[in-house]
Amino acid sequence: MRTFKIILAYDGTDYVGWQRQANGISVQALIEDALRALDGGDVTVAGAGRTDAGVHALGQVASFTIARELSPDALRRAINARLPHAIRVLSAEEAPAGFHPRFGARRKTYRYRLWNGDVLSPFERAYAWHVPGPLDVEAMGAAARLLEGRHDFAAFQATASDVATTVREIVASNISTTNDTLDAEEEPSSHKGLNLSVPRVARGGELIVYEVTGSGFLRHMVRIIVGSLVEIGRGRQPVEWMSAVIAARDRAAAGPTAPPQGLFLVGVEYAAALADGS
Amino acid sequence: MRTFKIILAYDGTDYVGWQRQANGISVQALIEDALRALDGGDVTVAGAGRTDAGVHALGQVASFTIARELSPDALRRAINARLPHAIRVLSAEEAPAGFHPRFGARRKTYRYRLWNGDVLSPFERAYAWHVPGPLDVEAMGAAARLLEGRHDFAAFQATASDVATTVREIVASNISTTNDTLDAEEEPSSHKGLNLSVPRVARGGELIVYEVTGSGFLRHMVRIIVGSLVEIGRGRQPVEWMSAVIAARDRAAAGPTAPPQGLFLVGVEYAAALADGS
Known about the structure:
homodimer, alpha+beta
C-alpha cells in the first residue's frame, strides 16, 4: 500500500463542496469514485480544507492510500481521465504513510475576489462577489492588517460551529487591486489607439483581491472577514471597528458572510520534511 | 421611435450563438425577449458579429428601435434586469435611425486564447483551447503577421459559405503570451517565499493569445487561422506555409478549425460620426 499526496484545482460552482454529502455531488466523492475505479476497492480521500459549496480551489491538497503500483505522474493522468474538467489533479507525489493533509498543514492561504463596478463581467459571475458603489480600498487594507497575529477569532466563525479552540494565527492579511481579469488582458500595442468600441470604463470596474495566510481557519472565517471588510470599505464602519469585532468574540459583532463564489483555497504549506514527501 | 446602440459582453458557453435559431437559446433571442417585455411589442435586434455556439463576446455591438422613452442608462439597467448574468449590456447610447452595427462596422477585433500546458486549468476550460506539448510561439507570431494586408481569404472560410467576396483586409494580426489568468494573479509580495504548496510550473502552462483586427471576417475565419497557426507552432508546417495557404484560396489547404470556446469578439470600430451616435 502506498500513500499519495495530490494537489488539486477545481471550479466549485457545480458542487456541494469538498466534503461528501448525501444531497449532491462533492469533489471528494468524485475523486474517491475515480480511485475506486482505478484501485478496485473503496478508497478514502482526506482533504486539507473543507471548501463549501461554490468555493473554488487553486491548490487543495488531498491524500489517500492505494494498492495499485503507479508512478505519481501516471496516477495524476489516470485520475484526471476519470474526473470532470472542472476538477484537475495538478500534481501527485508519494507521501509518508502517516501523512494527513489537514492535520499536517502548517499554513493555508485563501484568496477572495471582489468585483467593484456597475456591471459585473459575465466572466466573473462565478468567481467574484459583485460589490458596486464606492469602496474605500485603503481603509479595507488597513483593517485587513489588523487581523494579523494570534487572536481568538470566535467572532469570525459560522454560528453553531463546534471546535476545541477558536484561536488562530494569521501571518498575512492583505488587500490588493488588479486588472488581471480575462476581459482586461493587455491589448497588443499595435491595437492601441484603434478607437475600438469597447467602453473600458463602463465595463471595467476593478477587481479587489483579499488574500490571507494563517495557521488554520474557522468555518466561514474568510467570508465573514470579507463581509466585515466590505462594511468598512462602504464607510459603514471605521477601520478600528475590526479590532472591536475581534475583541467581541461574538459572531453578531462582525459583518455579513460574503458569498461563496469569490473564495479560492490557494495553497497549503507543510513542514519541509512532509512537503518533500520524505 | 428611437434607435439605440448597445455594447454587450457574454459568456457563450450555454448558447447556440448570437443568432436566433430553432434548436436552442441564442443571445439575440434573449435580448429580443427582454426588449419585448420592456417595449410591449416585437423588437428586432441586429448584431455586429454572428458569433457561433460557445464563442464569447467582450464588446459585441447591437442595435434596435423601440418606442419607449428611456434614458440610455435606464435602458441598460432595464435590459440587464431581464437577462441571465451570462449576458450583460455594458453601455447604451442613442444612435442615428439608419445605424446598423454590421453594415456600419469599419473594423472588428477578435481574440483567441490557447492554453499550452500539461493540465488545463479548470478555470480555462470554457475560455481557451487546450494545446499541450511544445509550441514554437515565435514561429506562430511570424506566421500571424503574414496575414496582415488585403488578401483573398477563401482558404479561411467554412465550407459551403456563400458570400459575395472573400477579400478582406487584416490590419493587425499578433501572437502574445501572458500570465493574466485567474490562477496566475500576482501574489502579494508579503506571500513571496512562503513555500506554498502550489506547483506553479505543473499547473501553470502558458496562455497564448492571438488577436486580429480586420475590415471583416468570413465564417470560421479566425478559428481556421488559429488552427493553421497551431500547425506551424507544432512544427508540422514552416512559417512560409501560411502564405501558401492564402495563395491556395482553398479551405483544404489550411489547418483544422480551432474549437469555439477560445474565441472572443473583443470590439467593433465605427467611423467617428457613428461612434458618437451623431
